[in-house]
Amino acid sequence: MSRAAKVVERIAVDELTKRQADKELARLSQEIARHDKLYHQQDAPEISDAAYDALRQRLKAIEARFPELVTLDSPSMRVAPAPSAGFAKVRHARPMLSLDNAFADDEVTGFLERVRRFLEREIALEADTEIALTCEPKIDGLSLSIRYENGELVRAATRGDGSEGEDVTANVRTLADVPKTLKGRAPAVLEVRGEVYMRRADFVALNERQAAAGEKTFANPRNGAAGSLRQLDATITAGRPLRFFAYAWGEAEPRAWDTQHEFLKRLTQWGFQVNPETKLCRTVDAVLALYRDIGARRASLPYDIDGVVYKVDRVDWQAILGFVSRSPRWAIAHKFPAEKAQTLLNGIAIQVGRTGAMTPVAELEPINVGGVLVARATLHNADEIERLDVRVGDTVTIQRAGDVIPQVLGVVMERRPRGTKPFHFPEKCPCDLKTAVVREEDGVVRRCSGGLECPYQQVERLRHFVSRQSFDIEGLGWTHIENFWRDGLLKQPVDLFRLRRDDLRKRVGWGDQSADKLIAAIDARRAIALDRFINALGIPSIGEATAKALAREYGDAQAWFEAMRAAGAERTAKPDATKKEKAVAEIGVEFGRLCNVQDIGVTTADKIVAFFGEGHNETIIRELLGEITIEPFRAAAVAADSPFSGKVMVFTGTLQAMSRDAAEAKAESLGAKVTGSVSKKTDFVVVGADAGSKAKKAAELGVRILSEEEWLAMAGG
Ligand code: IVH
Fold first, then answer.
1. To test the ligand 1 pocket, which listed residue (94, 96, 98, 99) has its Cβ within 8 A of the most ligand atoms?
2. pLDDT tens digit string along 370-390?
3. Are 281 and 287 in contact (CB under 8 A)?
4. What atom of ligand 1 comes closest to residue 327's alpha carbon?
5. Which of 288, 325, 580, 644 is deepest in the core (most CB within 10 A)?
6. Quick check: is 647 catalytic?
7. Domains in the chain and their CATH numbers?
């Protein structure tokens, strides 16, 4: 670096000349890009997170002072780090194409006429020859290409720009709908293409879990699927309800099918899911009738579709028809109209969640969309507002799909009244403290920095604490919590156990009976199961299922606390490893054990140890322990005479007869202790399909291995 640059580096932002600022911005952009690459692509950061943040902050401060120097490729212009940052690039052996769209019936007729004319010209097709079409719902997800060599899954890649996608092999291996080995006879090379998607109900549940854990929620099932697939930590993907419908091929050698419908049949034989609504149609009338039939049932299908894809069934004709630019001449997507409406945006409210995550919500002039009155719609985050340039007073287009939260799609610019102002995301939390809002590293979520001091967060935490999955205090509704909080009766979780009968019975609307009832309900929870207690703490990313997995792994509260502190100390000593295998192998025994708990990866493990690293959380726990007792994790009704009674068990791989969760619950009901990692103490390891390192370790340690059939037989089916 030149001496001049070195000098500029040290000049305070306020004192930079424009020329110096320009130079310094170039240097910072380069540095940031270099560190992004080291961190995301090489997994080898050179500087601490804080030093990296400082670089970004300096860049932002300079840009704020000299807005005219902001370039389009500045790191600050990136909404989030380039989405593909952590994934290797994969070149598709055959490009992944897109489809032309048709909206009206005559566009479909037009498509078929073009196909016919082309074939008449090229192969002298006779005028009355039937052109059969395979008709498949157009799944609203994201497309994926999965490569098999000699029947084994070797690589999976996203579409990317069609020529080059991202390598998501590790993540795709966690999808139950994707066979790791093709059943039966398979081509030597086969690229299977299809759509990764999420069912609406799964999406709603995922968003609830995300919100409960203080994590960001997704706009729609498609975004949920994309966000879940593109996780650098495959254990996160594994915990997400992703599914896959297969519908096309890329490279296929040798190709032993002559029609699309025959290929779809093969797909099912190899072990894929093919959409059950698929039909072969021989006339345009049949095609349009199917389109209307599927359209009428669209809302009742469990997943989102946005049209029906028609494909010329014969593969030889497909080859003759070929492509126009990036779309095949032999296929078209007949799109459905979305359930949309336009209405006035009266305001933008900010909701603050339990961990301070702030969600902007559009307050709308109520309007009927597809039979449902919509008065609020999500705006997701500050970037979304900026992207859409939504302003209070605008007429906005909103969309509602199934039971998904309505969303704002865009602004009807022609109807923008004069004098509207761009929306500025508040820099202070709407709470009384007016604490600063911070933007998270991922650049999307903004949080109130007030932590435990922010009243909104306090109330949300208390709500979570007493909720059904946590302390489950009967008769303590959300409005009560807000009122008790306002009146100073309930500020911290421990206050709940210090409520006195007299505090309650004097309140408006309360009497002796209701006060006694609530006190009794609270007393009934002075002994609490470990998993409920863990869930109640509201650690970011820890929901009900993970809390249970933790409780199962550590057994009792004391053991868990100690293990978490030890894991935290190990992590502090080695803060750099971010990949799971590396973290488990290198950071330390306790941190590794934590990463191996079901649904937990390095990211979540970091959040848990960070929670314990904060002094006030220790205080909250200590105070609670003065009021309550935490019961060790207990398996449900135990059958004493089962072969698994008192045994330590591990389940690994994919089970066929029941889900892993169900199998583990069954083992527990038979008296077993189910853990996440194999050690000398393990008595049985049940090995499903595609079991990996745990099965290997069991074999090495001489632990008894059971196949799924053996386990079922011993467990009594
Ligand atoms: S066929 C050459 N079939 O739609 C044909 N695509 O607009 C390639 N899609 O990128 C695609 N369902 O993500 C095909 N049954 C289906 C589909 C489907 C959804 C998506 C896919 C593709 C996009 C094209």
1. 99
2. 556 788 998 988 888 999 999
3. yes
4. 2
5. 644
6. no
7. 3-77+338-415 (2.40.50.140), 101-335 (3.30.470.30), 450-525 (1.10.150.20), 530-631 (1.10.150.20), 648-715 (3.40.50.10190)
